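Appendix B, record 7
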Amino acid sequence: MEIYLWVKSAHIIFVVALMAGLLIYPRYKIHQLSGRPGEPLFETMKDASARLKRIILTPSLVLVWVLGIWMLVLNPDLLSQGWMHAKLALVAGITAVHAYFMVLGKNVDAVSGTVQAKTLRMLNEVPFILMIGVVIMVIVRPF
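Structure tokens (predicted):
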């Protein structure tokens, strides 16, 4: 069971990294939208968000899934519990939000004009709300 606790610890570490990245990524893009291509603010935020995606967001998402699946392999009884099904649905939602943020980010980088700062501000709250649900499922295990 010792390996399970190490895997669980690593899983939590990368969940924290993923959530931090998902909460800051839209803010970077909001700042980028306040500049124009070629201007320092636009280019700085474009570069910062690309690094965030490459160094933290995408690797963390992959590791969250790999470590989570590893935990299920080590403890398959978890899959018989309703709270785990709800948690996995919420994690799928967080994964979808990540994918949607990446699409929006590409649109901001391409100056497509289809992404508004107001939209990014509203979407910025979605990962946090989903994470609240995940934490409740894991800690309270309501069903």
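Remarks on this record: The chain has five helices and no strands. Residues 90 and 131 are 8 Å apart (CA to CA).
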